[in-house]
Predict the 3D structure of the following.
Amino acid sequence: MSRDVLTPVQRYVIGGSPAVERVTDRRIYLSMPFRAHLLACVDRGESPTAVFREAGLDPKMIGYKRIERATAHARRSRPVRDWLERNGDMWDGDPAPPLQSGVDPAAGREDVVERGSGDVS
């Protein structure tokens, strides 16, 4: 298995972040408000890693390279810059609630994960 492939547990945890629109086994699709927030924060000199961490996206799980690429994309993206200019930094996403079990998603274990009171499908 390639090191870039996300396990089902990792996809579940990552998908729980309000910053994420959807996630596949190889790709994380970030929401436009989060990408604009990322751009605003980076323009102010903040750490991209800290921005992802605050959104509930552990850099150890998603990978520092993905953070670098997402930041570079946000900086180059005219649609992200236009969206930020039109709407401002309106990110208010709270991170996903912490996992309730002893699962370490960064380790890629595929144990059953319980979050909140809902069932895991």
Summary: The beta strands are 20-23, 28-30. Residues 96-103, 108-121 have pLDDT under 50 and may be disordered. The chain is about 45% helix and 5% strand. The two ends are 23 Å apart (CA to CA).
